[in-house]
Design goal:
Elements: E1 12-19, E2 22-29, E3 36-40, H1 54-58, E4 62-66, H2 83-97, E5 102-107, H3 109-120, E6 125-131, H4 140-155, H5 159-167, H6 175-189, H7 192-201, H8 207-213, H9 217-220, E7 227-232, H10 240-249, E8 254-258, H11 265-268, H12 270-284
Helix pairs in contact: 2-3, 4-5, 5-6
């Protein structure tokens, strides 16, 4: 069994797209004339976070799972990673692939970026899915945990530190797929370019930078796109009341909470998430 086994039977393309001077890694699948669905991962994550979601969505939609700016195998600018820069990179990618209007699916940091994009470019966002989204509060304990675990995973040679970093995302560890994802992430984390850029990827875990990038209620109130908030009741990076506050701040947003689920609902509970997402997308259309 492999994470890529999930894509058997799917006509997909692993590619690189030139986006405003940066080479952006992407997994693309689905009918070229279908509505675009763009999947964005979390802090120091990568597109493999969505391999369990692409097949179901690619039956109808043009899917893009993207390594965000500075992440995975996408180009790495020598500057702190802050939300406006991630949004600019996203828009550059959309322009490059000819996607005028898209459905955004963002997990953790990806949800933060997606929400910001929806508030700045309402005409380009058809719908919004926020999966255990971060960015609405400053929690020093959580931020320190992310910094410490990620630095250990990237800068220490023992693969066990990468495994522990990934386990932070799950309520119940999947031994087989978890081990393969560990190897994928270990390869990314131990690439020299990633290690040299790590401090930029962790910039939003510093209070001052996070403060100026916070998703405040007034910004979330500007979001016009139909919005689905998905949360895990065992999310170690944010409790359910945080999700409730997000859903309350975005006009008309709907909240779904998965039981026995951590920070990766789209992966850990794919059998629940995929039909929920597809029903939501059908309504949003």
């Amino acid at each position: 069994m492999s994470i890529w086994t999930e894509l058997i039977g799917v006509d997909y393309r692993h590619t690189y797209v030139e986006t405003a001077g940066f080479r952006t890694r992407a997994l693309q699948a689905g009918p070229e004339d279908g509505e675009h669905v763009v999947f964005l991962h979390g802090t120091t994550g990568h597109l493999e976070a969505f391999v369990r979601n692409i097949p179901a969505h690619a039956e109808r939609y043009r899917c893009h799972a993207v390594d965000m700016l500075g992440h995975g195998y996408t180009g790495k600018p020598d500057r702190p990673g802050e939300i406006p820069a991630y949004v600019e990179h996203l828009m550059s990618y959309l322009d490059a692939v000819g996607a005028e209007r898209v459905h955004l699916v963002g997990e953790s940091l990806g949800g933060w970026v997606s929400s910001w994009a929806a508030s700045e470019y309402p005409d380009r966002v058809a719908s919004l899915q926020l999966l255990c989204m971060g960015g609405t509060k400053i929690n020093p304990k959580v931020m320190e945990r992310l910094k410490t675990s990620t630095r250990a995973a990237a800068l220490k040679g023992d693969v066990s530190f990468t495994r522990e970093r990934l386990k932070l995302l799950w309520a119940e560890w999947d031994e087989d797929l978890g081990e393969e994802l560990t190897q994928v992430r270990y390869g990314i984390y131990h690439h020299p370019d990633f290690q040299a850029n790590l401090h930029n990827l962790l910039a939003l875990q510093e209070p001052e930078a996070r403060e100026r990038n916070l998703l405040r209620p007034d910004r979330m109130a500007r979001i016009k796109a139909p919005t689905l908030v998905v949360w895990g009741n065992k999310n170690p990076l944010g409790d359910v009341p945080e999700a409730e506050a997000i859903a309350a701040a975005i006009p008309g947003a709907r909240l779904e909470v998965f039981n026995e689920c951590g920070h990766w609902p789209q992966h850990e509970k794919a059998e629940l998430y995929n039909p929920l997402s597809l029903a939501f997308l059908a309504e949003a259309r």
